[in-house]
Amino acid sequence: MVKKLNDLEDEKFFLDKSITLGILTNKINSNQKYVSYIIRKYKNQHFNDYILNLRIQYIVNQLESNKIMLDYKLSYLADMSGFTSHSKFTIAFKNVMNITPSQFIEQLKAYKE
Predict the structure, then answer these.
(1) Region for residue 12 given its phi and psi (left: phi exceeds 0; alpha: psi -120 to 50; beta: otherwise)
(2) How far apart are CA 110 and CA 113, in angstroms?
(3) Half-sphere exposure of 105 (CA within 13 A, CB side)
(4) Separation CA 31–CA 16 (nearest Å)
C-alpha cells in the first residue's frame, strides 16, 4: 500500500485539483478508512495536509531548479501546483514554509545574484 502511494506521488497525482480521498482510494483499489490510516501512519499527516505538503514541496522544488519560474505570477504557480486559488496557495505555502511565496521567491532571487 505504501509503495502504491509512493508510486502515485512519483506520478504527481496530487497536482490534480479535484483529488479527494475517494479518488485516491479508487486509484489504489482500497477503501477510504485504510488509505487514510496508511497516510496517517506512514506519512504522519491527515489526507488534506498530506496533499497540501506534496503540492508545496513540488512548487518549491520547481522554483529552486528552474529559475525562470521566479518571474511567474503567483496565480500561475498556484494553478501549476494544483491549487484552485491564489489565496489557498499563499495560505498553504505560509503554513508549510513559514514565509509567503513572494518572500520565498525574493529570497531565491537574492541568492541567485
Answers:
(1) left
(2) 5
(3) 18
(4) 20
> Rounded to whole angstroms, what are the CA distances from 111 to 70, 74, 104, 107?
12, 19, 11, 6
Q: How far apart are CA 92 and CA 23, in angstroms?
A: 22
The answer to whether 104 touches 60, Cβ cutoff 8 Å, is yes
Listed in sequence order, the residues at least 6 apart from 22 whose beta carbon sits closer than 8 Å to its beta carbon are 32
**pLDDT tens digit string along 26-64?**
999 999 999 999 999 999 999 999 999 999 999 999 999
- Cα(10)–Cα(92) distance, integer angstroms: 21
Prediction pTM value: 0.94
**DSSP-H helix ranges across 13-73:** 21-28, 32-43, 47-65
Q: What is the maximum alpha-carbon separation in the chain?
A: 50
Cell of 12: 504527481
Q: What whole-number distance in Å separates Cα of residue 58 and Cα of residue 78?
A: 11
